[in-house]
Amino acid sequence: MARNKVQFQKGLSEAQFDELYGSEEKCRAVIFGWRWPSGFECPACGGREHSVIQSRGQYQCSACRKQTSLIAGTIFAATKVPLRTWFRALYHLTQSKGGISSIELGRRLGVTQTTAWKIKHKLAQVMMEREAGKRLKGRIELDDAYLGGERGGGKRGRGSAGKTPIVAAVETTPQGKPIRLKLRRVAGFSRAEIAKMAKNSFDPASSVVSDGLRCFAAVTEAGCVHHPILTGSGPKAGRNPAFKWVNTALANIKNAMTGTYRAIRDKHAPRYLAEFVYRFNRRFDLASMIPRLGYAAVRTPPMPYRLLKLAEISA
């Protein structure tokens, strides 16, 4: 049997990572290139001429005299953590298929769990914002699922406490090969929620294949063509070939969530889901994930800890 090219690709080895990003100076040079590909540009006036204030590590525009740091206005803004530590976090978040917990990330980076949590969630925020505007098109497999387990003594099945409802969608080729993934936390499995997701995430005239859950018919409100397939319930329904890839994606996500994280709060679920989506949609080239995510990170506004911790993130 031929090997799966995606699964067995080399990715970026630790030795290669150290060669590219193994010092603070290398990391600063890489970020400079990501932020200013054509050379320094003043964020205030657009001026190109500048001088470097070595004692403060800042750049001063020769035209307006405004000073700016390399990471001001980016997701790295105001960090006290060395940039090489951020780059190691980029490595672990992009090269591990099942994700990594903040506790384990803290051990590997040599920082506290709280610091690792901040870094992880800021980078996950970049992933989420990067994916937000991209739509699925063509043939789309759609299914519902829950994150989290049952609580003792509570209701079982749909609506049980301690579960976060999500919707998964996989864009495939006409032959059924997976291309891209979308995951969305929803308030519940209602027509309004499905219509909202479809309008934000699917191109009109897409062909959506789903099971017989009534709320999925709302994809037609976004201009999509709906093909419901009555599957019944139980394990047999999950093996229906029409939903092969969306079921595979959901199974992988649930296994990774169970094996990697002790618990996931509902309000933080979109960022955890964004990690899986980001890696899945770029799975054909693991080595390029670090520069692609870093390039996006310097174009993502700062995300203060208070917002990471308290704010509800829209799905």
TrEMBL record:
Residues 135-281 form the ISXO2-like transposase domain. Pfam families: DDE_Tnp_IS1595, Zn_ribbon_IS1595. InterPro entries: Tnp_ISXO2-like, Transposase_Zn_ribbon. This is IS1595 family transposase. It comes from Nguyenibacter vanlangensis.
